[in-house]
Prior knowledge:
mainly alpha
Amino acid sequence: MTTGEQTGQPRDEPAPRNQRPEEAADEAVAAAGKLSEALETTERARGHLYSFHQLTGHADLTLDDAIGLLRSAGRNDLAEELSRELVGRNVLAGRWTFQIIEEYDEGYYRDFRRMEQRVRDELVGGRTHVLEAEMKERRRTRGRPGHGACPSAG
């Protein structure tokens, strides 16, 4: 924690990792911020892929219960057809959901993260959330409880 030289109180400014490098132009900060926003959206999309994966897996396992109930109801014909047509079926050609996630992670997602890091390295010295930290500085009320720049500043 850094302190003000005269007051001994925590300095009320963004963390160094969120501060704009001196050489970074407004346009560069805006571009890095927009790309970061796009990456965050990609992170959300990836989360939805995991939801898709888990929900599809749960549905596949629940088919076992439905098949058992069909057999109990004397409908072996439907139970056999359901088992043959859906249990363990690929959701896309040659792929279960885990394979979709693997392809996404090893392709688009990996490349997106790599490019976001490269742009951030070149435009804002690798720093994170510079645009958001500057927006926070514009919007917060200095000196008010709950409006500190960092956790140590309140």
